Amino acid sequence: MSKVFIILQANEETRSIVEAIEQDNPDAEVVHEPAMVKVQAEGHLVVRRETIEEEIGREFDMQELNINLITLSGNVDEDEDALTLTWNS
Amino acid sequence: MDIKKTPKKLNVKEKYRLMTRDLAWEPSYRDEKEIYPYVDYEGIKVHDWSKWEDPFRLTMDAYWKYQAEKERKYYAIIDAHAQNNGHLNVTDARYLTAIKLFLQSISPGEYASHRGFARVGREFAGVGPQVACQMQSIDEIRHAQTQVHAMSNYNKFYNGFKDFANQRDRIWYTSVARSFFDDAMSAGPFEFLIAIGFSFEYVLTNLLFVPFMSGAAYNGDMATCTFGFSAQSDEARHMTLGLECIKFMLEQDPDNIPIVQKWIDKWFWRGCRLLTLVAAMMDYMLPKRVMSWREAWNIYGVENGNALFRDLARYGIKPPMHWDDVEKSIDHTSHQIMLGLYQWKFGTAFHSWTPTASDIEWLKEKYPTTFEKYYLPRWEYAIAQKENGGEYNNFGLPKLCQTCQLPCLFTEPDDPTQLAHRETEYEGEKYHFCSDGCQHVFEQEPEKYVQAWLPMPSMMQEPLKGDLAAWMEWASLEPTASGEYANSEDKANFEKWRKQVSTD
Amino acid sequence: MQIDVQTVNIEQKNQTFSHLKKRFGDKKIPSRYQEASYDLQAEENLHYRPTWAPEQELYDPNLSKIRMNDWYDLKDPRQFYYSTYTLNRAKQQETMESNFKTVESLNLIEGMPDPVLAVAQDLLIPLRHANYAANMNNTLVCGYGYGTVFTQPCVYHAMDNLGIAQYLSRLGLMIGDVESLEAAKQDWMDSDAWQPLRRSLEDLMCVRDPVEVFIKQNFVLDGLLYPLVYQRIVDQNLVEQGGSGISILTQFMTNWYLESKRWVDSVIKTMASESAENKAVLEEWIDSAANHFTSVLLPVAGLAVAGNQADELVSEAHDELLQRAKKAGLFK
Predict the structure, then answer these.
(1) Cα separation of B19 and B128, whole Å?
(2) Which of A34, B12, B395, C233 is the most buried (most CB within 10 A)?
(3) Chains contacting chain A through 3 or more C-beta pairs under 8 A
(4) Distances in Å between the alpha carbon of A85 and those of B118, B207, B314, C165?
(5) Contact C90 B27 (CB under 8 A)
(6) pLDDT of residue A14
(7) Are C95 and C251 in contact (CB under 8 A)?
């Protein structure tokens, strides 16, 4: 299995997003580095709109992720409800 | 049709298809070949452009909205950085060497990508990749510009920034990066996309933008960290474009597989050679380090690269040809490059130095099998020379590799005591290479690489004819911007200014 | 140790980068536009010839018949670099978003007379394909033109055209759902009124002289089309017939045309004043294309107004275009 990851800028806005990702991916590992936070998991990681909305208490458009996204790894599938990262091996 | 029909709620995918895919039409008055003259000659077969998968579905309104938000944040930070003398927050002025190198070499590459993506955004015969490439084109000019704007404030106080435009076209080490991007731009549209979109963006930019920029933050340079992360957030889209493009080519026709494999082999090697400069930036130029080049390579090169190539194995794609040579070089290249830059420091528009005692401890710890054995003795020799009032310089001009344009200073993959050197004869001329990888790239397309502009031989020709002083003036190499860091105006000024602002 | 960096006043070494000092002196701090635009493109010692056209240079001013001693003379009066461009468009986008919301919440489409909706459908929605061609043409100019101050606004212009195509698509979806877009595409492909324009755009997409493409697309075609369609047919005719809702949804196009024509005119003026040869080439391109596109747009105007009024509107637009050309120093 290969690791997929998403890296966000470390700031107030992304705290809740990272918490939402952790909820939806209990096996994910969160790594803090200067100015950035990396969330990684084996093979599969999902970022769900609904969970983020619960965390931040307002509507969230998945494309808002762009503002604080630094990088990611894995095949991307994005629609209005979720962003999914996968490796097929 | 029924006007005033209540619109159905469309999902993002369907809406995006209507907003982009559906805009193009099949020409009937002119032949497609007249409109897209360059789409065939590389031999890539495309049967159905509509099979292209759009990774991120940004319509222009959303693009403007979110990018504007990024821009506002970014310029707020660099305005504050300029107003508050943010440059005095960096750990020490050695750090500036890294960002000088960045501005002279990498920012022009961002610009070249901008133009290159505009070209392929016009040359592809399918609207999906056209729009995706155009969006990357406009992003890339953003990166070039935000970098120039971030450096503009450093330029006001330090040497080595002001001549970046002239130096881009004339200095020997900037030619390394420029030859990489020129190589990609002079290739066909599909190869360009593999070169920049796939090899550079997907396989390699994480190494450039993630650990190095995190390092910039750690060293107090929020301006650079911010442009780096802000740029990389666009790269997340670009990398995905690169990956989609490669999958698209591989899925369109089995005949494409060997062509794509050949490009992966070439551009992986080209990219790794270019990134040896970044290796030196990470291991030597960040006064406080976040991670070593080796550690960064393990995460973003080995772990991430392996994941990618395992994923692509289902198409019959193999890991890049010279992967093992790269892996063997990782513990060596940063030291070899930094020693090279140090001995040719009279010809660089940035400063270099010998590692301090604490640098040496760190390097020993991070490179337990190589640093102490092979490179520490050479640094100690340079340090001893300095202590005896001498200077460690090599006024002999380096022999440059015909392909990557770096000096031939790398060692044999299996013998770190032997300098690697390869030669190929082509049409009666002898060409020199730093490695098997670069020789291989040349031999695939000798008619292209014989054209390379090599800065060193050009110095011997009209109008400079070997006049070193004239050459330095021509390349805007001012003595204040070059040489040993310890003796530099930058160091003296930085320390003076820091003293002015510090209170015990 | 505490550091209070804000209080110190230290002397600057350099006001600006050397290439900007050479161009503008160093009396004034250069603008961010200047820093972001001048001399960014590689000039010399280019490494390899393009494998796709070995007779060309990687950046090649000779791709055009127009000659400039310094292509950086062609500055954009709007001084757009990425940031100013994006912030501007984001603001306009916000207005458009609220326009769409207003039209939706007040059911303005629902209440619109059928003939107005028919014109919107027949005339406006097929234009999204013309914007796609304009997007491609500007992308070509950005890719193959020479010098950043000339090429950079073209990528912005290309993306603007894509944005306009998307606003028109949203309008289509509002007035007739997906079927609106399908019908419009059918018209674009087959109906007599659109064929001359489609043919002309396919022809223009085969032209490889970047300045010729710039002139024919951005000056001539857009200089006829926007005054004709948006300023006259939409903002006058349709508004008079109860179609204000349409005019609100094409506000971006109207404003965008007024804004960008300053840039286009300034480029032409600078090129024309460079040499008599440039002036002659520009006049030849503009003269032939203006006559051609005027006749091409006549049946398009006919989709909205009766024959003789179409003649009148098209010839007004043609006169207006020639006025702009004269102001830029041509045809004198």
Answers:
(1) 11
(2) C233
(3) B
(4) 28, 20, 18, 31
(5) no
(6) 92
(7) yes
| Residue pair C167/C252 in contact by the 8 Å Cβ criterion | yes
Question: Which among C74, C67, C45 is positioned nearest to C57, based on CA atoms?
Answer: C45
- In angstroms, the CA C133 to CA B23 distance is 9
Q: Which of C187, C139, C180, C183 is nearest to C159 (CA)?
A: C139
Domains of chain C: 81-327 (1.10.620.20)
Domains by residue range for chain A, with CATH? 3-86 (3.90.56.10)
Domains annotated for chain B, with CATH where assigned, are: 12-17+37-503 (1.10.620.20)
Residue type, B29: Y
Residue ranges for chain B with pLDDT beneath 70:
1-8, 503-504
| C chain contacts of residue B2, beta-carbon cutoff 8 Å | 176, 179
What residues in C contact B141, CB-CB < 8 Å? 82, 152, 155
- Mutation target to probe the B interface, by most B beta carbons within 10 A, among C51, C104, C119 is C51
How far is the C-alpha of B278 from the C-alpha of B273, rounded, in Å? 10
Residue type, C218: N
Beta strands in chain A (DSSP E): 3-9, 29-33, 36-42, 44-48, 69-73, 75-78, 82-86
Of C93, C166, C180, the CB nearest to B19: C166
> In B, which residues are within 8 Å of A36 by CB distance?
210, 214, 229
Nearest to B307 among A64, A73, A79 (CB): A73
Bridge partners of B411?
B419
ipTM given for this complex: 0.97
Question: CB-based contacts of B288: which residues, under 8 Å, 6+ apart?
Answer: B91, B215, B218, B219
Does residue B400 contact residue B413 with C-beta atoms inside 8 Å?
Answer: no
Whole-number pLDDT of residue C7: 61
A79 CB within 8 Å of a chain B CB: yes
* Chain C residues in contact with B155 (beta carbon < 8 A): 14, 16-17
Q: What is the pLDDT along chain C (332 residues), one digit of tens a residue?
A: 455 665 667 888 898 999 999 999 988 889 999 999 999 999 999 999 999 999 999 999 999 999 999 999 999 999 999 999 999 999 999 999 999 999 999 999 999 999 999 999 999 999 999 999 999 999 999 999 999 999 999 999 999 999 999 999 999 999 999 999 999 999 999 999 999 999 999 999 999 999 999 999 999 999 999 999 999 999 999 999 999 999 999 999 999 999 999 999 999 999 999 999 999 999 999 999 999 999 999 999 999 999 899 999 999 999 999 999 999 999 98
CA dihedral (B191, B193, B194, B197) in degrees, to 10, reads 160
Q: Which of A8, A32, A36, A39 best tests the B interface by mutation, with the highest count of B CBs <10 A?
A: A36
Q: Do chains C and B touch (3 or more CB pairs under 8 A)?
A: yes
Facing residue for B108 by CB, picked from C42, C47, C81: C42
> Which letter does DSSP use for residue B396 in this model?
S
Smallest CA–CA distance from C136 into chain B, residue: B122
Say what the pTM is. Answer: 0.95
- Determine the Cα angle at B26 with ends B21 and B27, to 5°: 135
Identify which of B25, B29, B186 has the shortest CB distance to residue C185.
Answer: B25
| Contact across the interface for C45 and B476, Cβ inside 8 Å | no
Output phi, psi for C271, to 5 deg: -65, -40
Chain A neighbors of B282, CB-CB under 8 A: none
CA distance B226 to chain A (A): 9
In a 3-state reduction of DSSP, which class is residue B158?
A: coil
Contact A74 B307 (CB under 8 A): yes
Residue of C3, C42, C179 with shortest CB distance to B502: C3
CA pair distance C120, C124, nearest whole angstrom: 5
